Amino acid sequence: MKGEPIISIKNLVKCYGNNSVLKGIDLDVHRGEIIGYIGPNGAGKSTTVKIMLGLVKDFEGDVKIFGNDIRDGSVEYKKKIGYVPEVPDIYDNLTAKEYSEFIGVVYGMDKKEVEEKTLKLMSVFGIEDAYTSRIESYSKGMKQKFLIACSMIHDPDILFLDEPISGLDANSVMVFKEVLTKLADMGKTVFYSSHIMDVVEKISNRIILLNDGVVAADGTFEELKRVNHEESLENIFTDITGVNNHSSKADAFVSAVKGE
Ligand SMILES: Nc1ncnc2c1ncn2[C@@H]1O[C@H](COP(=O)(O)OP(=O)(O)OP(=O)(O)O)[C@@H](O)[C@H]1O
């Protein structure tokens, strides 16, 4: 599985004004890895992903993807990347047909190929009948399934998935989890950012926990369990992020609701 890293991050630092979000991240990711990228709200997970995608440019440190420094200005590497954003910025007055054609053009794909692929991908999720409907008329889950389909129409080598199963029903989640495993077996790399610990625990072959601007844990689930003497990722997360007063926080919330 090893060899040259497909993503190489050295001493990545990112500040928003006085807010120091990433304080020196070092990370090598290899082909076929499914990285579960976790951390508390605001830890900088989306920021890291956006830097790798070239969407956030003002950072310190080195980021190489497929061996190329992303500062070089080349957009070629982006053709080999698929992305499901946490908050989709989708033109939802378009139909799925129109939107996927637009995406296909960006990736330099043939229109017919885009249509065939989009319909096949949508039909796996049972939403192909909505192909010519406006995306704004979709349910939350339908929209998410369509975004997942769009992220893969160009057969990317790296997938960045930010809370990808949000809104998906249990059957669709099962299909999607298997899809990821099969893609990783083919040598694709998956960067999976989520707060749903039991899914991360099951699908990832490596888990990276970001806390307070640094990588606080990095290893397989088995390794993290051994080092942290815990049986679940949820408990490992709680131990490392140092929040163990859940019950008193809940009491304070309920008191506030009651106006106490
Ligand atoms: N465009 C921006 N301008 C200013 N601050 C930002 C911007 N984007 C993110 N931040 C700040 O950077 C920090 C990290 O945000 P980020 O979205 O990367 O966290 P995250 O780990 O993905 O969180 P979540 O789990 O809540 O999605 C937060 O403090 C956030 O307020």
UniProtKB/TrEMBL annotation:
Gene3D superfamilies linked = P-loop containing nucleotide triphosphate hydrolases
Q: Which GO terms describe its molecular function?
A: ATP binding; ATP hydrolysis activity
Nucleotide-binding in keyword set: yes
Oxidoreductase listed as a keyword:
no
Q: Which positions fall inside the ABC transporter domain?
A: 7-237
Query: InterPro entries, per this entry?
Result: AAA+_ATPase, ABC_transporter-like_ATP-bd, ABC_transporter-like_CS, P-loop_NTPase
Q: Which SMART domains match?
A: AAA
Q: Provide this UniProt record's keywords sorted from A to Z.
A: ATP-binding, Nucleotide-binding
Which Pfam families would you find in this protein's record? ABC_tran
User: What domain of life does the native source organism fall in?
Assistant: Bacteria
Question: What PROSITE patterns does this protein's entry cite?
Answer: ABC_TRANSPORTER_1, ABC_TRANSPORTER_2
Q: PANTHER family given for it? A: ABC TRANSPORTER, ATP-BINDING PROTEIN
Q: What is this protein called?
A: ABC transporter ATP-binding protein
What species is given as this protein's source?
A: Oceanirhabdus seepicola
Upper taxonomic classification of the species? Bacteria, Bacillati, Bacillota, Clostridia, Eubacteriales
